[in-house]
Design a protein that fits this description.
Number of strands of chain A: 9
Number of helices of chain B: 9
Number of helices of chain A: 3
Low-confidence stretches of chain A: 142-147
Order of helices and strands of chain A: EHEEHEEEEEEH
Number of domains of chain B: 2
CATH class of the largest domain in chain B: Alpha Beta
Oligomer: heterodimer
Order of helices and strands of chain B: HEHEHEHEHEHEHEEHEH
Radius of gyration of chain A: 16 Å
Distance between the termini of chain A: 26 Å
Strand content of chain B: 5-15%
Distance between the termini of chain B: 14 Å
CATH topology of the largest domain in chain A: Alpha-Beta Plaits
CATH superfamily of the largest domain in chain A: Aspartate carbamoyltransferase regulatory subunit, N-terminal domain
CATH architecture of the largest domain in chain B: 3-Layer(aba) Sandwich
Structural class of chain B: alpha/beta
CATH superfamily of the largest domain in chain B: Aspartate/ornithine carbamoyltransferase
CATH class of the largest domain in chain A: Alpha Beta
Chain lengths: 147, 307
């Protein structure tokens, strides 16, 4: 794989430096058999340092996870070696099976088949609440634990 | 399909409509005695709660309907490992409306997402209990004539007392509310209720450990029980359970038209001598609970096109 260019796939750019591996793990990229590159601490005129992930295969990525971990990233979709779509994503309004509710009194603690669903309550402070029991999860604290 | 899971599912206008219907039921019970004839309410009580279950059952019988269900998880398929989602799908085939109590928070929401008939949350652990809040609101309206410009004292367990959180957020939608929070340090109102309900609505509030300090200003005194089941540590429960006991002596500076409320059951927070005081409203709350549940069953069945 040539790290500079990929043929068909996705480039996740402008990941805050240090969060690239977290994103790699949460997206389950270790389970892919296609080439995946993580570039850490790349120079960035806007951010100083940034991480970049390049996935050299046309596979869908979970935008909720990306938006949750690093809402200011840029997603570049590459087709036939050409940048065909560039999109920014913000904080997702709903998270489904991205984080898990830690409240032992929540129905999700006993009914294993239920999706763990959180809704965005406060975008400024990046606060989510479990839709079942209203337990709060802040993006920052969950990131620390997931990383 | 419309359900009632959280009191916030109801708009101010919905609450006004429910209260108007409940008051009409109180005035004209015969008019409603056949309103739900041939319809069935399923009471799915995965944990015991005699008074709430009986209130729902009495409400449905007074509307001319029928009731089926169970009063503890051991007598349901949950004891065989059936999920809440499956229980809701199955019971939807038998009943026209469901009232569910469950020890796990969010279980009635799961039921509502899988049910083809309306689901009413009859209490999910320490989370929501919207029909208690409706009973409280009907009582406030009947005792005070409305919800505006009231000074309401909440006393006792303000930390785990879900009825308190729920009633505060329901009353916060009306202008002129002032709140007095009376509790021991350990059972103070959680900061999120202050930051997410009281502060955004611009509601004036004070916190105190004294039951008497603000008594002369109160229009309503809402007493609560320190609930043993909400504590992990028995020692903490025993230390805090008798923090506030309302006696005639403590009421000597209270207004003549104070309304004393309590979601019941009480243990010893209100002395039995107060029962004879015309300001005691807690047994009226029980009765109002039945009438507002009748109004709610009617509203949900009408919305569903069942009646």
């Amino acid at each position: 794989m040539n790290i500079d260019s990929i043929k068909n796939g996705t480039v996740i750019d402008h990941i805050p430096a240090g969060r690239g591996m977290k994103l790699y793990n949460l997206l389950g990229l270790d389970r892919l058999d296609c080439p995946v590159a993580i570039i850490k601490n790349a120079n960035s005129s806007a951010m100083g340092r940034k991480d970049i992930i390049k996935i050299d295969a046309d596979i869908p990525v979970n935008l909720d996870i990306i938006g949750y971990v690093a809402p200011n990233v840029t997603i570049n979709i590459i087709r036939d070696g050409v940048l065909c779509e560039k999109k920014s994503i913000g904080l997702p309004t709903t998270l489904r099976n991205v984080i898990r509710c830690k409240n032992p009194r929540c129905i999700t603690s006993t009914e294993q088949e239920l999706d763990h669903v959180f809704r965005l309550e406060n975008a400024e402070e990046r606060v989510y609440r479990c839709v079942y029991c209203d337990t709060k999860a802040s993006a920052e604290e969950a990131e620390g634990k997931k990383g | 399909m419309r359900h009632l899971i959280d009191i916030q599912d109801l708009s101010v206008s919905d609450i006004g409509e429910l209260i108007a219907t409940a008051n009409d039921i109180i005035e004209n019970p015969k008019k409603y005695s056949e309103a739900c004839r041939g319809k069935k309410l399923a009471t799915l009580f995965f944990e015991p709660s005699t008074r709430t279950r009986l209130s729902f059952e009495a409400a449905m019988y007074e509307l001319g309907g029928n009731v089926l269900g169970f009063s503890e998880a051991q007598s349901s398929s949950a004891s065989k490992g059936e999920s809440v989602a499956d229980t809701a799908k199955v019971v939807s085939c038998y009943a026209d409306i469901i009232a569910m109590r469950h020890p796990k928070e969010g279980a009635p929401l799961v039921a509502s997402l899988n049910s083809t008939v309306p689901v009413i949350n009859a209490g999910d652990g320490g989370h929501f209990h919207p029909t208690q809040t409706l009973a409280d609101l009907l009582t406030v309206q009947r005792e005070k004539g409305g919800f505006e410009n009231l000074t309401v004292g909440f006393c006792g367990d303000l930390k785990f007392g879900r009825t308190v959180h729920s009633l505060i957020s329901a009353l916060a939608r009306y202008p002129g509310l002032k709140v007095v929070l009376i509790s021991p340090e350990e059972l103070k109102l959680p900061s999120y209720v202050k930051s997410e309900v009281l502060k955004p609505a611009g509601i004036e509030y004070v916190q105190t450990t004294s039951l008497e300090e603000y008594m002369p200003q109160l229009d309503i005194l809402y007493m609560t029980r320190v609930q043993r089941e909400r504590f992990f540590n028995e020692e903490d429960y025993l230390r805090l359970k008798d923090s506030y006991i309302l006696t005639p002596d403590r009421l000597k500076n209270a207004k003549d038209d104070l309304a004393i409320m309590h979601p019941l059951p009480r243990v010893n927070e209100i002395s039995v001598e107060i029962d004879k005081d015309p300001r005691a409203c807690y047994f009226k709350q029980v009765l109002n609970g039945k009438y507002i549940r009748m109004a709610l069953i009617l509203m949900l069945l009408r919305d569903a096109g069942t009646i």
